[in-house]
User: Which sequence fits this backbone?
């Protein structure tokens, strides 16, 4: 007993408790998704699925008939899950590609090019980080409406397509750390700024660019409010918005909680796969950027 390091034991105990508390909502989502919606109320305190069934997943994937869905407490409405999944992939991919590309160009201009007022413009640009996004939502909505881009993919991605202050700041800080001698050698060989950027700087910045792409993709995938404002039409509706509408399809008077949890799990799967494949890089990026 004398050799036991009680402080270390207490630390592990706290860590286990925190992990259990963190993972419990995910377990509850799984438990609910495998339950029968009609039986949920009777077994609300059960830790295991109530009247185990895969009906919720069949409803989400459109494999159940209306009669089968209603029999298990589901909605009589149809859920075009694959269409919403495609829309989310399109929006997140286009937003990520545009933001990383144009953000890298702007960051290089702020880090390496010499032009009057560069530092003042960069300071003003980065100041936008302190403006809450809700303040720009209404002007952006009016602009998208006046441009006739409501219920279009372009209207959904446009506000975040070009660049964000965070993306420019993040990449500029890395570009500043690149050895200037490498670029000078490229210029001596006759390379201009454009060729130096694409042939020298970008290949040397694969790590930060991948990190920015991951963070941007996750943020775009989880975005709800802006797609809800400008993309209500079914042909451009993303998964986060569709989940809210799915919850509202309650002909029996109570939400289809099992179906909602199954749809939420499907919506989270791409991000979970992303974390499983690139988890280490995401954790490193969070530690580097201070994002919480």
Assistant:
């Amino acid at each position: 007993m004398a050799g036991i390091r009680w402080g270390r034991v207490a630390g592990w105990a706290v860590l286990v408790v925190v992990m259990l508390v963190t993972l419990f909502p995910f377990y509850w989502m799984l438990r609910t998704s495998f339950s029968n919606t009609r039986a949920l109320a009777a077994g609300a305190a059960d830790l295991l699925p109530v009247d185990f069934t895969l009906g919720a997943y069949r409803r989400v994937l459109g494999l159940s008939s209306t009669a089968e869905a209603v029999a298990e407490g589901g909605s009589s409405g149809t859920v075009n899950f694959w269409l919403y999944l495609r829309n989310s992939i399109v929006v997140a991919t286009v937003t990520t590609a545009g933001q990383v590309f144009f953000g890298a160009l702007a960051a290089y201009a702020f880090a390496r090019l010499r032009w009057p007022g560069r530092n003042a413009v960069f300071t003003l640009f980065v100041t936008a980080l302190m403006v809450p996004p809700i303040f720009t939502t209404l002007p952006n909505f009016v602009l998208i409406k006046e441009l006739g881009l409501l219920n279009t993919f372009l209207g959904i991605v446009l506000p975040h397509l070009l660049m964000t202050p965070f993306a420019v700041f993040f990449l500029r800080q890395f570009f500043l750390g690149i050895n200037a001698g490498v670029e000078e050698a490229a210029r001596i060989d006759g390379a201009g700024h454009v060729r130096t950027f694409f042939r020298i700087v970008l290949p040397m910045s694969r790590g930060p660019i991948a990190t920015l792409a991951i963070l941007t993709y996750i943020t775009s995938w989880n975005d709800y409010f802006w797609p809800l404002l400008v993309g209500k039409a079914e042909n451009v509706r993303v998964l986060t918005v569709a989940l809210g509408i799915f919850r509202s399809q309650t002909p029996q008077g109570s939400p289809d909680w099992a179906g909602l949890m199954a749809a939420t799990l499907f919506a989270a799967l791409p991000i979970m796969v992303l974390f499983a494949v690139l988890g280490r890089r995401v954790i490193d990026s969070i530690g580097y950027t201070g994002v919480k």
Residues 257-289 form the longest helix (33 residues). Residues 97 and 140 are 21 Å apart (CA to CA). The chain has 15 helices and no strands. The two ends are 39 Å apart (CA to CA).
